[in-house]
Specification:
Helices cover about 45% and strands about 15% of the residues. By secondary structure, it is α+β, with helices and mostly antiparallel strands. It has a five-stranded antiparallel beta sheet with strand order 9-4-8-7-11. A four-stranded antiparallel beta sheet has the order 2-1-3-10, with no helix packed on it. It is globular and about 100 Å long. It starts with a helix and ends with a helix.
Length: about 650
């Protein structure tokens, strides 16, 4: 036994909450290819011959150890961008622990660069307290794998100094082993940590979050941003989490309609975009990026920010829910919906129609969580754009969902107002008498909001991953987008596992995997298939000639809305009494207010054919060429006169 392994095993013997640890098992060739620990080894003088992990809770169900696992890799390698974010987030949590004087150990878990933060609780912490802490931490840090902190029976991690299957070992970066062997932390300190995390967590709509550090008040963005976006741009040195702050800057810019050139200009000087100028070395310092690396990183993250902005665009103004009982029921119903997707995949993926229904339900669940209201207003076109479907496909899916009792149309479309929809998923939910909590006794607000934010993040990731030009009907299809999104949750998939998760046959799944492989979106792995390290969806869309499909569709739907509003103004004029009609014969007037120009909007008269009937085709052409834009409207009115 080497000295390093002996030291690691001695530490394990001192801190392990149980008398046995889990160990890896070699395959028939003597290799350790799978990251699993199926066997047990008794805690004694003799160390295991393979890597091991210790469970965090004791036999009584009390957590004696806490491990926060920040992972920037998957089973087929390290994602450089994700790893940098994991390092930033681990450092941010470590600084909060230092502020609260909570002794901890920060480790580099293996040679790949992941981070573990260890905290020892000698007296033990209850599972509900740790679960609340885990959800609060996950609401702050997207790279945190908090599953082990929710599993009181089998939640486990490799301890500090222990060997990794790749030959490296867990190395201590900050802190001392005395923080684990002689800790005096009590559960009340964990509750204080939860309070701080709840106070500093990002807003449900990330772009509206408070900055993660002090702000340079003298900095001004060169183009208009929201107040929160300008604050992110001015955050000195990127704040406590530079990678997150940098992405918030891009998301704010995408929502404000900036171009890539605007973003590149801001990245040169904006304090909040420090992440795109320098990188975290992992040793508490940062070094300059090369120009090529900085530009490549910025372009990839900008494309991602635009995807998130497209999904968030239909959201109404933010409003915190007043009724926590209703919000608690919404969170439970969405959890029920996600469970249905998981346990009955055949219902939601065997046909193209069922897959469309699943996507529309996902979008409605996302809007319901974001608004905190049972009933949400959503036009068919907005829902279609959120999930990458056509409006007729979305309308058909909504009709089938309403017929089957999954959604209910509360109000129909009224003039310029969208229809209102309600998720009706409580039919199969168990009675309130056997629930873990009564329906009229919601969980504490902070824990409820954290559970809600985790669900929002999960749905948002699924919507952004599957919404792309490449996954439209003319490209690889909607099912390919779903499979690509699933590979975020499952780093590797075999054909059989992918078919089971999608609810399709293996033959169809094999064909989808082959298409993704042909465009280098996935790679072959010893455990099946995995996502490629680089996101080549844009390149594949250009090859297939579908690049810009969703933008064209959004512009087409905008034109359709404009024509419809124009025609409604014309109908109002036609049906009004002569005294109430506008005096100018070449204009229709309707009290439709625009966001950028207060006051009554003046519409030109609707185009007419030779027989004086409404010419909708000409109206559509005029809208498409911009004849009704504010700068062109008066010229058009003059020409019509």
């Amino acid at each position: 036994m080497s000295a390093d392994v002996a030291d690691a095993w001695e530490l394990t013997r001192r801190i392990s909450p149980r008398d046995r640890v889990r160990v890896m098992k070699r395959d028939a060739y003597g290799r350790l290819d799978e990251n699993s620990y199926p066997s047990f080894h008794r805690v004694g003088p003799q160390a295991p011959t393979t890597p091991w992990c210790i469970r965090l809770a004791d036999d009584a169900g009390l957590f004696r150890l806490l491990c926060f696992d920040f992972d920037g890799k998957d089973k087929h390698g390290v994602d450089a961008e994700l790893m940098e974010r994991a390092v930033d987030e681990a450092d941010a949590l470590s600084r909060i622990l230092d502020e609260l004087a909570i002794a901890h150990v920060l480790c580099q878990s293996s040679g790949s660069g992941g981070r573990h933060i260890w905290i020892a609780v000698p007296g033990g912490a209850r599972a509900d307290v740790v679960a609340t802490l885990a959800r609060a931490a996950r609401a702050n840090y997207r790279t945190l794998d908090h599953g082990m902190l929710l599993n009181v029976r089998e939640g486990a991690a490799r301890p500090p100094l222990s060997p990794h299957r790749d030959g490296s070992s867990s190395a201590i970066i900050r802190g001392s082993l005395g923080a684990l062997t002689a800790s005096r932390i009590v559960p009340d300190e964990l509750i204080a940590l939860v309070a701080v995390l709840d106070e500093r967590k990002p807003a449900l709509r990330a772009a509206e979050s408070a900055p993660s550090g002090p702000v340079d008040r003298s900095h001004r963005a060169h183009r208009q941003l929201t107040a929160s976006g300008a604050a992110h741009m001015a955050t000195i040195d990127g704040g406590s989490n530079p990678s997150w702050t940098g992405f918030m800057c891009l998301l704010a810019a995408a929502n404000a309609g900036w171009s890539l050139a605007d973003v590149e200009h801001a990245a040169k000087t904006a304090p909040g975009m420090e992440h795109y100028r320098t990188k975290n070395t992992g040793r508490g310092t940062r070094r300059r990026r090369s120009p090529a690396e900085a530009r490549e990183r910025l372009e990839r993250q900008w494309a991602k920010a635009q995807q998130y902005a497209a999904v968030q665009r239909p959201l109404p103004a933010a409003r915190e829910p007043r009724d926590l009982t209703e919000l608690d029921a919404i969170v439970r119903d969405v959890d029920d919906l996600l469970t249905r997707f998981r346990v009955a995949p055949g219902r939601w993926g065997r046909t193209e129609a069922a897959l469309s229904e699943r996507s529309i339900l996902t979008a409605l669940a996302y809007l319901t969580l974001q608004t905190g209201k049972r009933v949400v207003a959503a036009s068919i076109r907005d829902l279609a754009l959120m999930v990458g479907l056509g409006r007729t496909t979305a309308a058909d899916a909504l009709q089938r969902l309403a017929r089957d009792g999954y959604v209910q149309k509360v109000t129909t479309t009224d003039g310029g107002n969208a229809a209102e929809w309600r998720l009706t998923l409580t039919l199969s939910t168990t009675s309130g008498t056997v629930r873990s909590q009564p329906l009229d006794n919601p969980r504490p607000p902070a824990d409820l909001y954290n559970a809600r934010s985790i669900q929002v993040a999960q749905l948002e990731d699924e919507l952004t991953d599957s919404r792309h030009d490449l996954f439209t009907r003319a490209g690889l299809g909607h099912l390919a987008g779903k499979l690509y999104a699933i590979l975020r949750q499952h780093p590797t998939l075999t054909v059989d596992t992918a078919a089971r998760l999608l609810g399709t046959g293996t033959r169809h799944t094999t064909r989808i995997l082959s298409r993704l492989r042909r465009h280098r979106l996935i790679i072959k792995h010893r455990e099946g298939w995995a996502r490629a390290k680089r996101d080549l969806r844009d390149q594949a869309a250009r090859i297939l000639g579908v690049a810009g499909t969703l933008l064209d569709r959004a512009e087409r739907y905008r034109a359709e809305r404009e024509v419809w509003a124009w025609w409604q103004a014309e109908l109002t004029t036609m049906n009004a009494s002569p005294r109430m009609r506008p005096r100018r014969r070449n204009a229709s007037s309707r009290p439709l207010f625009e966001a950028d120009a207060p006051g009554e909007r003046i519409w030109p008269r609707y185009p007419r054919s030779a027989d004086r009937r409404a010419d909708h085709r000409s109206a559509r052409e005029l809208v498409t060429v911009g004849a009704l834009s504010p700068e062109s409207r008066w010229q058009y009115l003059g020409d019509a006169a």
